[in-house]
């Protein structure tokens, strides 16, 4: 077996007192929290694109990290070396899932999609062969419909029926490969499904075409035996100025309007939430209360920068509040995909491991603290009491069970003349409770 990371030991749980940079301090896969093992609460996934493909290249400079894995980039030999490196990486960390775009797996042929598709057949055979006997499997697959210049005006939202056929062809093939690799989900991130100016855009036509492409994907996916969730990954902007899947609420409305809500759920990404002017927790809550929380892209943004920085999660407040939502939702069907990348100057193989250890520990700590918040009970009790007038009074119960009329409520108000002030929201107290739980 190839050893790309020979100098890195197997990463084990050593506990918070450990100073070993190659050990987990909080992620203890077998530890049971609220009746479930940590690894079941947190099915972590490696993102093929950031971990095995991205080399730190940005708009201002060349890559800083060597991701050639001993082969020439752009060849099938390199594609296979990435599979070998990825499996070794996941095994060293105890990660059981991966996520991919079609063109993360193989180089795309610029002249003929049939050549690319044959390469995808070859690489998926290779992945199956190499993961046989391991517990590594696919979390979700997707088609990259934003990189190739043909998608400059979008994929489902393109103005060109020819390009639309290529979007369909890529989705069909990516679905074939996802099903072949046992994927639990299939993601649509509408990177260029949006517009720059309304002066040249037929929004209605574009949105109908996107929905129709999704409907055809569902029909095809189900016909080849895909039983998992289709997922929309909302993001408000970047690369397009306006993206149609702005946030969870917008995406849910879209899915319902086009009758796609039975087959689709949402893949919520932390940094996309903050770009939309929301918190990660907000997007998780909106998805969960609508029965639409499917999967998570685990990363964080930078509040000083207005773009999608895809940093490895480090902020324990955010992961605690995220895991609070996940626990309250009863868990997710999908997983936690590290759609996160090393900072450009963190350019060694060691840094790839430090990054995943950081991300996994930050979510594990979030899980531990979220469970502690729920077990502490003060926050839940406060919320319950805050709405007690809807359970403890006759008129409140009538409002909740929809048996009250507007006139009846107006009579009630007339009798009261003036309501009592609503009770304090106690935000500062609750934040103090959270700090107590976090730093106990
Ligand atoms: C882009 C992004 C994508 C999706 C998959 O911001 O998050 O990588 O996760 O296409
Ligand atoms: Co993502």
In terms of DSSP E residues, the strand content is 5-15%
Distance between the termini: 45 Å
Q: Sheet bearing the most strands, described?
A: 8 strands, parallel, barrel
Instruction: Compute the CA-based radius of gyration.
Output: 24 Å
Q: Please provide the count of β strands.
A: 14
Overall spatial form:
globular
CATH architecture field of the largest domain: Alpha-Beta Barrel
Q: Extract low-pLDDT stretches.
A: none
CATH topology-level name of the largest domain: TIM Barrel
Enumerate how many helices there are, as a single number: 17
* Small molecules held by this entry: D-xylulose, cobalt (II) ion
CATH class of the largest domain: Alpha Beta
- Look at the helices and sheets and give the structural class: alpha/beta
Order of strands across the biggest sheet? Answer: 5-6-7-8-10-12-13-14
**Overall pLDDT, averaged?**
98
CATH superfamily grouping of the largest domain? Divalent-metal-dependent TIM barrel enzymes
| Count of discrete structural domains | 2
Structure description:
- The chain is an alpha/beta fold and 440 residues long.
- The two termini are 45 Å apart.
- Helices cover 46% and strands 11% of the residues.
- The chain is globular.
- The chain has two domains: 365 residues, TIM Barrel (Alpha-Beta Barrel), CATH 3.20.20; 60 residues, no CATH class.
- Helix 12 packs across helix 17.
- It has 17 helices and 14 strands.
- Helix 6 links the parallel strand 7 and strand 8.
- The strands form four sheets. It has an eight-stranded parallel beta barrel with strand order 5-6-7-8-10-12-13-14, surrounded by four helices. The protein has a two-stranded parallel ribbon with strand order 1-2.
- Bound molecules: D-xylulose (XUL) and cobalt (II) ion (CO).
């Amino acid at each position: 077996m190839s050893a790309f990371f020979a100098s890195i030991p197997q990463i084990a749980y050593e506990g918070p007192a450990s100073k070993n940079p190659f050990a987990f301090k909080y992620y203890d896969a077998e530890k049971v929290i609220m009746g479930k093992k940590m690894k079941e609460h947190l099915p972590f996934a490696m993102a093929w694109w950031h971990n095995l493909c991205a080399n730190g290249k940005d708009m201002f400079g060349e890559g800083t990290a060597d991701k050639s894995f001993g082969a020439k980039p752009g060849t099938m030999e390199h594609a296979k070396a990435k599979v070998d490196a990825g499996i070794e990486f996941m095994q060293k960390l105890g990660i059981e899932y991966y996520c991919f775009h079609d063109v993360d797996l193989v180089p795309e042929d610029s002249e003929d999609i049939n050549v690319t598709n044959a390469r995808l057949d070859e690489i998926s055979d290779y992945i199956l062969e190499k993961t046989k006997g391991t517990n590594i499997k696919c979390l979700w697959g997707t088609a990259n419909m934003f990189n190739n210049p043909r998608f400059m005006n979008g994929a489902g939202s393109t103005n060109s029926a020819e390009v639309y056929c290529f979007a369909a062809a890529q989705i069909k093939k990516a679905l074939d490969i996802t099903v072949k690799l046992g994927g639990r989900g299939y993601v649509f991130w509408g990177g260029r499904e949006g517009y720059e100016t309304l002066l040249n855009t037929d929004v209605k036509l574009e949105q109908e075409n996107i929905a129709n492409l999704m409907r055809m994907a569902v029909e095809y996916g189900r016909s080849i035996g895909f039983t998992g969730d289709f997922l929309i990954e909302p993001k408000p902007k970047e690369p397009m100025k306006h993206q149609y899947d702005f946030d969870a609420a917008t995406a849910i409305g879209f899915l319902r309007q086009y009758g796609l809500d039975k087959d689709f759920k949402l893949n919520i990404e932390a940094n996309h939430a903050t770009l939309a002017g929301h918190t990660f927790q907000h997007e998780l809550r909106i998805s969960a209360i609508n029965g639409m929380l499917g999967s998570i892209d685990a990363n964080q943004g930078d509040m000083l920068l207005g773009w999608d920085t895809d940093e490895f999660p480090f902020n324990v407040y955010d992961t605690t509040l995220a895991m609070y939502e996940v626990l309250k939702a009863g868990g997710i069907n999908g997983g936690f995909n590290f759609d996160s990348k090393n900072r450009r100057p963190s350019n060694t193989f060691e840094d790839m491991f430090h990054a995943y250890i950081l991300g996994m520990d930050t979510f594990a700590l979030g899980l531990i603290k979220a469970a502690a918040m729920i077990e502490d009970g003060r926050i839940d009790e406060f919320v319950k009491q805050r709405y007690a007038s809807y359970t403890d009074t006759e008129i409140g119960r009538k409002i909740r069970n929809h048996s009250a009329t507007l006139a009846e409520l107006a009579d009630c108000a007339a009798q009261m003349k003036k309501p009592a002030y609503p009770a304090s929201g106690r935000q500062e107290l609750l934040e103090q409770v959270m700090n107590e739980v976090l730093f106990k």
